[in-house]
Amino acid sequence: MTSDHCTRYLEDPEAHSAHLGECAECRAMQQQLEARVVSQPVRVDTLPLAPWEGADHRSWPLVVGGALTVTAIAAALFAAASTSPIDLLVQSLRGSVAIARSMVGVGGGLLENAPILILGSFVIVNAILFALLRRAPKGIDV
Fold it and tell me: What percent of the chain shows pLDDT beyond 90?
């Protein structure tokens, strides 16, 4: 079993299958393996569950703890700045509405032609993707 031929057979049984005809120990080992595979069918009902299939380990306490920590840090920063999150949200929305109004005034004709521009860009992007998918690959398959 310790010969060089046995080692080569164990490393690649398909390439050195003729070795079974000259070595009784390797032949016996191969017969035992085949008998074990044939006699023991795989029972699917006893396979272990993966974490995403309902196993016992859950990482939700870590997620909830992280969210609470971020919330506490944010609350401390708002308290240090002596402002409330709602006031900050209202101020940022006022700025966004003003920017949107100015863009509508400047854009004028752009909003009238928006559906045509969107449709045209959709067709152009899909044509590019179609052309890229039709090309021959330049990877491992070459």
Answer: 18
pLDDT digits (tens, 9 = 90+) for 55-74: 555 678 888 999 999 999 99
> CA torsion sign, 19 to 23 to 27 to 29?
negative
Alpha helices in the chain (DSSP H): 4-11, 24-39, 60-81, 85-107, 109-112, 114-134
Rg of the chain over Cα atoms, rounded to whole angstroms, equals 34
Can you tell me the distance from the alpha carbon of 109 to that of 53, in angstroms, rounded to the nearest whole number?
54
Residue 22 Cα distances to 3, 15, 58, 73, 76, angstroms: 12, 15, 54, 74, 79
CA count, 13 A, side-chain hemisphere, 121: 6
Helix-then-strand count for the chain, H and E = 6, 0
Query: Which amino acid appears at position 75 of this protein?
Result: A
* 137 phi, psi to nearest 5 deg: -70, 150
- Per the document, the length of the chain is 142
Cα dist from 42 to 36, 45, 56, whole Å: 11, 9, 23
The token duo for 8 is 């080569």
